[in-house]
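pls design
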C-alpha cells in the first residue's frame, strides 16, 4: 500500500503518515472513515470537486500537522471541534463555500503557523483568540464577509509576516498596536470600511515590503513617518479620502517600486525631491486627485518608470519637449483629463518602449507630429477631445503594433491616410467628429482585425469600398452625418459579426439587403438617406435586435409579417411610403418603448393589442390613413409619455380611459373626426405639458377639470371644434401655459378675469366664437387684435373701450332710438345756426358803421387789426385757425347751417 500514488508511510511501513490526493478529480464528500487514520500527519485533498461539510470526525486525527482542503466546494460552518487538533501547523481550507463564524476554538492552535480561510463566505468578526497564535506566520482572511473591528490582540502574533484581510466589511480604525508586529512583511487591508487616519505606528514595521490600504474610508494626511519604511516595495493608498500634499519618496525609500495614490483628495504640486538617483520606482499612479501646476519635471528623473498616470487632475501648461528621453523604459503615459496645452512634442517619438499614450480631454493644439511613427511598440493612442488640427500623419501607419486609435472630437482635416491598411492589428479606429474629407481608402478593408469603425460627424464622401468584405471581425460601424452616397456593396452581407450599424444622415440609396447578412444585429439606424424598396424580412433573423430606425427614406410595402422581435425597444419607420395595416405580429415586441410609424400611408383601424405594450413610452401614428375609434385599451400603457394620433380619419369619442395615462406629457389628437365631449378624466394626466385636440367635431363645454393640468406649458389647443358654453375660470390655474387657442368654436359669456393671471402666455387666440362678450382682462393689452376677431361683443384693450351705464354693460340701441337721436341733433343744430346767423348780421352792421365813420385817418390801425384777425399774430400764430379763416375769405361758398356744423366737427376731430 505504501507504494501507491499519494501515500507516505513511516520508515517501517507500519503507519500511514501522509495522504496527498490534490488535483485528482475527486468528487463526493469527505468520508467519516478518515477518523481511523489516526497516524496521519498530512492530509491534502485540495483542488478537487469535493462537496459537503468538513466532518467533525477529523478531530480524532490528533497527529495531524497539515490539513489542506482549499479549492473545493465544501459548505457549512467550520466545525468548532477542529480546534482539538492541537498539533496543527498549517490549516488551509479557503476557496470553498464555507459560511458562519470563525470558531473561537482556533485559539487552541498553539503551534499553528499558517491559517488560510480566504475566498469563502465566512461572516462575523475576527475572534480575539487570534492573539493566542504565538507562532502564526501567515493569516489569510481575504474575500469573505467579515465585519467588526480588527482586534487589538493581533499585536501578540509577534511572528506574523503576512496578514491579508482585504475584501471584507471590516470597520473602525486601523489599530495602532499593529505597529508592534514588527515581523510583518505584507499588510493587505484593501477594500474594507476602515476609517480614521493612517496610524503613525505603522512606520515601526521596518520589515514591511507590501502595504495595501486601498478602497477604505481613511482620511487625514499621509504620515511623513512612512518614509522610514526602507524595505517598502509597494504602497497603495488609493480610493480613500486622504488629503494634503505628497511628502513621500525621500532618499530613504530606495526600494519602492509601486506607488498608488489614485482617487484621493491630494493637492499641491509634485515635490522637487520626488525622484532621486538610483530610484527603483516603476509604477506611479497619481490619478484622480487635485494636483495642480505644470507638468512635474521632477518625474523626468525617475528613469526607471514604466507606468505613469497623472490623469484626472488639474495639471496645466505645456508637455515637456526635452527630457522625455530620460524615460526610456516608459511603456504607459497616461495624462488625460487635465488642462495641458500647447502642441504634442515631437520628442515623444524617442520614447521607444511606449505602448500606451493617453492624452485625451486636454487642450492640446497643433498637428500630430510625424515622429509618432517611430513608436514601433505603440499599441494604443488616445488623443480625443483636444484641439488638434492638420492632417493625420501618414507616418502613423508605420506603427505596426497599433490596435487602438481614438482621435474623436478634434479639428483634424484632410483625408484618411491611404496606407491605413498597413495596421494589420488595428481593432479600434475612432475618427468621429473631425473635419475629415474625401473617400474611405480601400486599404482600410485590409485591417482584418478591425472590430470598431467610427467615422461619423465628418465630411467624408464617396461610396463604401468593396474591400469592406474582408472586415470579418467588424461588429460596430458608425458613418452617420457624412456625405456618403450610392448603393451599398452587396458584399457587405458577408460581415456576419455586425451588431451595430449607423449610416444615418447620408445619401445612400438602393436596397437595405446588404446590411442584413448578420443575424447578430442589435442596432440598425439608416435614418435620413434615400434607401428604397421593401424592408427585408431577413431582419427578423436578428433576434436580439433592440433598435431599428429607418425613418426619412423612400421605403415602400408593408411591415414584414416575420417581425416578432421580442427584444426590440425602438422602432422608427416614420417618413416613408409604407402601406397596409399594422400587423398583429408586432404585438410580440412587448419590450417596445418607442413606436414611430408617422408620415406613411398605413391604413386600417388602430389595433387594440397596442394596449399590451406595457413599456411603451412614445407612440406616434400620426399622418396616416387610420380610421375607426381610438382604442380604449391604450389606457393600459401606463408608461406612455407621448401619444400622437393626429392627421388621420379617426372618429368616435375620446375614450375616458385616456385618463389612466398618468405619465403622459404630450397628447395630440388634432385633425381627425373625433366627436362627443372632452372626457373629464383627462384631469388625471397631471404631467401633461402639451394638449392638442383641435380640428375635430368635439362638442359640449370645456371641462373645468382642465384647470387641474397645472403642468401644461407648451400649448392648450381646442380650436376648430363645436365647443359651447362658457370658458371655465379654472383655466386661470394654468400658470405655466405659453399658448392658448380656443378659436373657431361656439363659446359664450364673458372671458374669465382669472385668465389675466396667465402671465406666461405669449400666444392667445379667442377669435371667431361670436358669442363671447364683456370686457377683456387688462393683461390682454399686449395681444394683437387678431386674437379676438369675430367676437363683436368683446371690449376693452386692445379693443375699443367699453361704455358702462350705472354699472351695467352697454346695450345695443334699437332703430327707433337711433332715429330719435338723429332728429334731436338736426333740430338742435338748426336752432344754433339761426342764432349764430342773427349774431353775425348784427356784428356786420355795427362794423360797417364804424368803418364809414373812421375814414378820416385811422386806416393804418384798422389794417393792422385786420391782418392780425386774418393772418394771426407772429408770436402766437394759430395755423389751424388761419386755415379756417382763409377758407372762409377766399372761397365764395354759400354756407348752410349743416355745412357749418360739419366744419366744426371736422376741426374737433382733427384736434
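designed seq:
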Amino acid at each position: 500500500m505504501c507504494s501507491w500514488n499519494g501515500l507516505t508511510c513511516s520508515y517501517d511501513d507500519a503507519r500511514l503518515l501522509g495522504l496527498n490526493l490534490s488535483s485528482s478529480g475527486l468528487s463526493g464528500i469527505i468520508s467519516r472513515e478518515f477518523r481511523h487514520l489516526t497516524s496521519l500527519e498530512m492530509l491534502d485533498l485540495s483542488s478537487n470537486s469535493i462537496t459537503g461539510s468538513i466532518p467533525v470526525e477529523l478531530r480524532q486525527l490528533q497527529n495531524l500537522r497539515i490539513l489542506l482542503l482549499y479549492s473545493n466546494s465544501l459548505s457549512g460552518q467550520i466545525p468548532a471541534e477542529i480546534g482539538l487538533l492541537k498539533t496543527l501547523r498549517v490549516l488551509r481550507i479557503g476557496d470553498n463555500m464555507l459560511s458562519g463564524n470563525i470558531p473561537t476554538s482556533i485559539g487552541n492552535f498553539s503551534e499553528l503557523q499558517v491559517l488560510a480561510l480566504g475566498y469563502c463566505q465566512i461572516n462575523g468578526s475576527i475572534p480575539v483568540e487570534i492573539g493566542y497564535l504565538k507562532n502564526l506566520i501567515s493569516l489569510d482572511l481575504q474575500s469573505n464577509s467579515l465585519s467588526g473591528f480588527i482586534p487589538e490582540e493581533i499585536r501578540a502574533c509577534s511572528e506574523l509576516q503576512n496578514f491579508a484581510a482585504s475584501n471584507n466589511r471590516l470597520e473602525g480604525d486601523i489599530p495602532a498596536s499593529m505597529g508592534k508586529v514588527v515581523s510583518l512583511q505584507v499588510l493587505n487591508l484593501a477594500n474594507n470600511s476602515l476609517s480614521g487616519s493612517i496610524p503613525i505606528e505603522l512606520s515601526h514595521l521596518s520589515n514591511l515590503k507590501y502595504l495595501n490600504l486601498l478602497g477604505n474610508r481613511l482620511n487625514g494626511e499621509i504620515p511623513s513617518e512612512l518614509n522610514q519604511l526602507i524595505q517598502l516595495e509597494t504602497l497603495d493608498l488609493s480610493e480613500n479620502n486622504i488629503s494634503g500634499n505628497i511628502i513621500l519618496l525621500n532618499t530613504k525609500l530606495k526600494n519602492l517600486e509601486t506607488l498608488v495614490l489614485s482617487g484621493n483628495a491630494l493637492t499641491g504640486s509634485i515635490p522637487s525631491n520626488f525622484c532621486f538617483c538610483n530610484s527603483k520606482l516603476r509604477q506611479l499612479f497619481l490619478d484622480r486627485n487635485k494636483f495642480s501646476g505644470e507638468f512635474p519635471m521632477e518625474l523626468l528623473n525617475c528613469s526607471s518608470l514604466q507606468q505613469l498616470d497623472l490623469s484626472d487632475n488639474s495639471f496645466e501648461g505645456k508637455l515637456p519637449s526635452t527630457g522625455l528621453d530620460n524615460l526610456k523604459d516608459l511603456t504607459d503615459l497616461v495624462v488625460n483629463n487635465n488642462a495641458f496645452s500647447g502642441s504634442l512634442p515631437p520628442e515623444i517619438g524617442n520614447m521607444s518602449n511606449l505602448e500606451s499614450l493617453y492624452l485625451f480631454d486636454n487642450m492640446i493644439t497643433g498637428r500630430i507630429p510625424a515622429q509618432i511613427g517611430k513608436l514601433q511598440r505603440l499599441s494604443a493612442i488616445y488623443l480625443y477631445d483636444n484641439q488638434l488640427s492638420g492632417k493625420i500623419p501618414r507616418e502613423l501607419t508605420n506603427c505596426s503594433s497599433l490596435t487602438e486609435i481614438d482621435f474623436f472630437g478634434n479639428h483634424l482635416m484632410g483625408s484618411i491616410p491611404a496606407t491605413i491598411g498597413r495596421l494589420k492589428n488595428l481593432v479600434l479606429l475612432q475618427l468621429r467628429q473631425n473635419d475629415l474629407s474625401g473617400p474611405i481608402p480601400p486599404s482600410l478593408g485590409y485591417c482584418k482585425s478591425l472590430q470598431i469603425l467610427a467615422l461619423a460627424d465628418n465630411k467624408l464622401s464617396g461610396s463604401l469600398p468593396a474591400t469592406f468584405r474582408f472586415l470579418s471581425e467588424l461588429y460596430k460601424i458608425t458613418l452617420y452625418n457624412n456625405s456618403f452616397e450610392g448603393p451599398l456593396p452587396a458584399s457587405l452581407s458577408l460581415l456576419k459579426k455586425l451588431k451595430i450599424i449607423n449610416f444615418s444622415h447620408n445619401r445612400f440609396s438602393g436596397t437595405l439587403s446588404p446590411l442584413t447578412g448578420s443575424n447578430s444585429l442589435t442596432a440598425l439606424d439608416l435614418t435620413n438617406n434615400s434607401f428604397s424598396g421593401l424592408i427585408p424580412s431577413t431582419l427578423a433573423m436578428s433576434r436580439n435586435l433592440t433598435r431599428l430606425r429607418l425613418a426619412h427614406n423612400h421605403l415602400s410595402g408593408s411591415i414584414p409579417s416575420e417581425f416578432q422581435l421580442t427584444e426590440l425597444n425602438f422602432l422608427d419607420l416614420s417618413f416613408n411610403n409604407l402601406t397596409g395595416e399594422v400587423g398583429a405580429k408586432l404585438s410580440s415586441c412587448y419590450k417596445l418603448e418607442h413606436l414611430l410609424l408617422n408620415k406613411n400611408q398605413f391604413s386600417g383601424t388602430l389595433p387594440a393589442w397596442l394596449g399590451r405594450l406595457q413599456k411603451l413610452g412614445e407612440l406616434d401614428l400620426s399622418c396616416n390613413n387610420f380610421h375607426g375609434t381610438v382604442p380604449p385599451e391604450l389606457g393600459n400603457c401606463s408608461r406612455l409619455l407621448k401619444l400622437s394620433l393626429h392627421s388621420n380619419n379617426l372618429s368616435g369619442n375620446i375614450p375616458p380611459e385616456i385618463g389612466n395615462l398618468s405619465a403622459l406629457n404630450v397628447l395630440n389628437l388634432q385633425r381627425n373626426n373625433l366627436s362627443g365631449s372632452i372626457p373629464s378624466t383627462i384631469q388625471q394626466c397631471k404631467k401633461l405639458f402639451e394638449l392638442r385636440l383641435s380640428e375635430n367635431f368635439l362638442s359640449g363645454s370645456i371641462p373645468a377639470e382642465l384647470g387641474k393640468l397645472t403642468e401644461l406649458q407648451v400649448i392648450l389647443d381646442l380650436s376648430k371644434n363645436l365647443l359651447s358654453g362658457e370658458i371655465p375660470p379654472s383655466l386661470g390655474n394654468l400658470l405655466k401655459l405659453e399658448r392658448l387657442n380656443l378659436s373657431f368654436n361656439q363659446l359664450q359669456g364673458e372671458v374669465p378675469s382669472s385668465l389675466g393671471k396667465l402671465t406666461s402666455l405669449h400666444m392667445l387666440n379667442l377669435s371667431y366664437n361670436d358669442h363671447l362678450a364683456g370686457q377683456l382682462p387688462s393683461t390682454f393689452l399686449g395681444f394683437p387684435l387678431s386674437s379676438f376677431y369675430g367676437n363683436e361683443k368683446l371690449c376693452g384693450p386692445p379693443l375699443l373701450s367699453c361704455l358702462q351705464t350705472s354699472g351695467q354693460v352697454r346695450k345695443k340701441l334699437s332703430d327707433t332710438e337711433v332715429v330719435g337721436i338723429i332728429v334731436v341733433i338736426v333740430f338742435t343744430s338748426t336752432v344754433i345756426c339761426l342764432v349764430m346767423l342773427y349774431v353775425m348780421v348784427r356784428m356786420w352792421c355795427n362794423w360797417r358803421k364804424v368803418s364809414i365813420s373812421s375814414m378820416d385817418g385811422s386806416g393804418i390801425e384798422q389794417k393792422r387789426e385786420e391782418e392780425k384777425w386774418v393772418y394771426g399774430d407772429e408770436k402766437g400764430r394759430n395755423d389751424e385757425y388761419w386755415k379756417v379763416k382763409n377758407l372762409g375769405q377766399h372761397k365764395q361758398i354759400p354756407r348752410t347751417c349743416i355745412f357749418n356744423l360739419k366744419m366744426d366737427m371736422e376741426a374737433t376731430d382733427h384736434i
